[in-house]
Amino acid sequence: MHLVLRSCGRTAARLACRAAPRRGPQALACQRAWLGSTLSPASSTTPGYYFQASVHQSKQAKDYSLPNSSWSPDMMTQFNKYMEMSKDKTWKKLPSYRDILDHMPERMRQEHEEERSEESRMFLRNLDEEGKGFEYVMFLNWSEKRMACVAQLGPYLEGPPGFVHGGSIATILDSVLGGCAMSLLGHVMTANLNINYKTPVPLGSVVLAESKLDKLEGRKVFVSGHVRSVDGETLHAEATGLFIQLASQKTHPPPECSK
C-alpha cells in the first residue's frame, strides 16, 4: 500500500505544485496545501496525505474502505472493532478512493479535473469484482503514532497453492509502515524495507497489519510493524522500514519522536 502512497505523493505534488515557484510565498503555500502544520488530533487537519484525504472527501467519490458484500465475518468484526474505538477519536478511519484527484481538496480537484484518466486507478483498489484482490481499511492512532490495517486477501493474490503470495504481504507491510510515516509527518519515500516471513497466510483469510513510528534522525524516519492473524495467535511476518522525508516538505515531528 505504501507503493500506492509513494505514487500518490508524487502525483499530488506534481499536480499541486506544477506552476508554483521553487521559493517564496507561493512555494510555501503549495507545501502547506498538502502537509498543513503540525496540529493536535482534535484539529480539523493534520500533516500527511491521508489526513488531507479524510478532511477533503469528494462528495461523489466512492470510499472503497467501507464494507461491501465480499467482506467476510472476520473482516466485518475487525472493522466494527476499530470503528467502535474511533468514537472517542483515539483512532481515525482513513478513506480510500479510486483516483488520486478524489483525495485532493475540492478546489485543487476542480483545477485538475481535465487530467483525470478513466483507465488509471490507485494501486490495490477497484478490481473488476469485489473481494478478488485486496480488501482493506486503515486506521490511524495519532497520539500513539500507530497505524492498523485490516486486510482480506482474495484469490487473485495466490502464491503457493492455497496461500497468499509473499509479495502481497510485502505490499501490505510497505503500505502500513509507509502510511504511518506519511500520515504523521507528510510526504516520505521508502529507502529500505526489511521483512522476515514467519508463517504462510492462507488464501482468503483476514489479517491485521500494524505499524508504529519508532524514531526520527533528521530526515530519516524509522518504522516497524508486523502482520498477524486477527486472533493475534499467529505472526505471519514482521518488518522494519526506513523512510526519508523530502527536504522541501519536512514537518515538525510529533511529540516524543525525535532522538
Automatic annotation (TrEMBL):
Give the encoding gene's name.
LOC107126254
The record's similarity note reads: Belongs to the THEM4/THEM5 thioesterase family.
Membrane topology, from the record? Peripheral membrane protein
Keyword field: Apoptosis, Cell membrane, Cell projection, Cytoplasm, Fatty acid metabolism, Hydrolase, Lipid metabolism, Membrane, Mitochondrion, Mitochondrion inner membrane, Transit peptide
Catalysed reaction, written as an equation: (5Z,8Z,11Z,14Z)-eicosatetraenoyl-CoA + H2O = (5Z,8Z,11Z,14Z)-eicosatetraenoate + CoA + H(+); dodecanoyl-CoA + H2O = dodecanoate + CoA + H(+); decanoyl-CoA + H2O = decanoate + CoA + H(+); tetradecanoyl-CoA + H2O = tetradecanoate + CoA + H(+)
Q: What is the lineage of its organism?
A: Eukaryota, Metazoa, Chordata, Craniata, Vertebrata
- The residues covered by the Thioesterase domain are 162-234
Q: Which organism is it from?
A: Gekko japonicus
Q: What is this protein called?
A: Acyl-coenzyme A thioesterase THEM4
Report the domain of life of the source organism.
Eukaryota
**Where is the major localization of this protein?**
membrane
